[in-house]
Specification:
The protein has 14 helices and 22 strands. The protein is of the alpha/beta class. It folds into two domains: 10-221 and 403-459, Ribonuclease Z/Hydroxyacylglutathione hydrolase-like (Metallo-beta-lactamase, Chain A, 4-Layer Sandwich), CATH 3.60.15.10; 229-401, Rossmann fold, CATH 3.40.50. The strands form four sheets. Strands 6-5-4-3-2-1-22 form a seven-stranded mixed beta sheet. Strands 7-8-9-10-11-20-21 form a seven-stranded mixed beta sheet, with helices on one face. It is globular and about 65 Å long. The structure holds zinc ion. Residues 256-375 form the Beta-Casp domain. Residues 22-251 form the Metallo-beta-lactamase domain. Keywords: Exonuclease, Hydrolase, Nuclease.
């Protein structure tokens, strides 16, 4: 029974993923305890990325506990900064999220160090010498604070504050986060998967709650039903016929594993020829082994995981990667990052974009300001490693393979809840998508939801 007596039990402040899809951070005050839900990096547009360097409006050592919805860097990648600034409390998340963060966070630290090195070598930083946002060592140190908990386990994470995680679909380990005390509760959707994802199960229904914070990445869009295997097969075959290479920039965690699986299915059904498949991302290779390990958390069988292993060439070292980039042959290559913001995929793009034989297929949401967004919107040239590269290759946006549900998935998920939330705050969307989500919630569920604004503080 949820009772309220007029007193303020909770306060919520939106420190990220408001007006944009990255930088997720929500500061919750409950029982006089300060809980941070998600601690993500901003990616994409420069104005947003600069916020990664701004001081949080709270002293990090005053935070009592941190909870993560899932491992993606735009939800976890700010943790090493918080550690660096003095946070030494626990970081609660699912076991899968912890295993993936063990891979993703040190890599993020490495990329930060590389960025600083690049800025120093090219002398374009305002600061001399340019310092990394954090280092590999900071990232490794903050992993010691992780405290994984089981799904559905009711855990007291601070005096009188309880946490329950439920499956959110999306990627391995992804959870909705319920936080509450005796009187009140709030649920954070994190990133929600779809009802018909090929490898992840549908998001689990939530219990009654007073407040819900819900994502809206695809608040203004519907996915076509996942029957796009034929479309994928046709696109691959057309590329091979031209003698080109089919490159998929993919998120190392989640979409890379889905595509590896689909390619094996297409080969087994003889819908595409038996050409080499390369996974050129050390992170994605490690993430694939985590998916194999947590095989109860997704739909892939042991045989399907083995088919991926047997049918994929894992490109581990930089030398192997360089060799692959210079090869000319029909092949499917999956490489990270998914929005072409960094990583080995940039070398492939530099090599493949200027030739109209090749195809570049983007697989999910491309945040504003990323190279991925520019390419799917028809850019005729893009900047890679300091030089402009002409875009001649075919560019495809395979939104149908996104790991996010569309607005109807979210509404249908809400309809399964024990009862509808009393208040809803919409986050994690570009402004038009979040506003469209607000309209859909009103039309279909009669709920007056509120689109959250950056730094807005609300009393619940
Ligand atoms: Zn995500």
């Amino acid at each position: 029974m949820l009772l309220k007596t007029g007193a303020i039990f909770m306060q919520l402040r939106f420190l990220g993923a408001a007006g944009t899809v990255t930088g997720s951070k929500y500061l919750l005050n409950i029982n006089n305890k300060t809980i941070l839900v998600d601690s993500g990096l901003y990616q994409g547009v420069k104005n947003y990325r600069e916020r990664n360097w701004a001081k949080l409006p709270i002293d990090e050592s005053q935070i009592d506990a941190i909870v993560l919805t899932h491992a993606h860097i735009d939800h976890s990648g700010y943790l090493p900064v918080i550690y660096k600034n003095g946070y030494r409390g626990a970081i609660f998340c699912s076991h899968g999220t912890f295993k993936l963060c063990e891979i993703l966070l040190p890599d993020a630290g490495y990329l930060q160090e590389e960025d600083a090195k690049y800025a120093n070598d090219n002398r374009f930083s305002k600061h001399h010498p340019a310092e990394p946002l954090y280092t590999v060592d900071d990232a490794k140190a903050c992993l010691n604070l992780f405290t994984p908990v089981d799904f559905h386990q009711h855990t007291e994470i601070a005096d009188g504050v309880f946490l329950t995680l439920r499956h959110a679909g999306h990627i391995l380990g992804a959870s909705t986060v319920e936080l509450g005390n005796q009187q009140d509760n709030i649920i954070f959707s994190g990133d929600l998967g779809r009802h018909d994802d090929i490898i992840m199960r549908a998001p689990e229904a939530i219990p009654a709650c007073n407040t819900l914070v819900v994502e809206s990445t695809y608040g203004d869009r519907r996915h076509h039903p996942i029957d796009s295997l034929e479309f994928l097969a046709n696109a691959i075959n057309a590329t091979l016929k031209r003698g080109g290479i089919f490159l998929m920039p993919a998120f190392a965690v989640g979409r890379a594993q889905l595509m590896l699986h689909l390619i094996q299915e297409l080969k087994q059904a003889a819908l595409i020829p038996n050409i080499p498949v390369y996974l050129n991302s050390p992170m994605a290779i490690k993430a694939t082994s985590v998916y194999n390990h947590f095989n109860k958390e997704h739909k892939l069988t042991a045989e399907q995981c083995k088919a991926i292993d047997d049918g994929t060439e894992y490109v581990k070292t930089m030398e192997q990667s360089t060799l692959l980039i210079s090869k000319v042959m029909p092949a499917i290559i999956i490489s990270a990052s998914g929005m072409a913001t960094g990583g080995r995929v940039l070398h492939h793009l530099k090599n493949l974009l200027p030739n109209d034989k090749n195809t570049i297929a983007f697989l999910g949401f491309q945040a504003a300001g990323t190279r991925g967004e520019a390419l799917v919107n028809g850019a005729t040239r893009i900047k890679l490693h300091g030089e402009y590269v002409p875009v001649k290759a075919e560019i495809l946006a395979l939104d149908n393979f996104s790991a996010h549900g569309d607005y109807q998935d979210i509404i249908d998920w809400l309809k399964q809840a024990e009862q509808l939330p009393k208040k809803i705050f919409i986050t994690h969307g570009e402004p038009t998508a979040s506003d469209a989500m607000r309209c859909h919630l009103k039309e279909q569920l009669g709920i007056e939801a509120c689109v959250a604004e950056y730094l807005q503080e609300v009393e619940l």
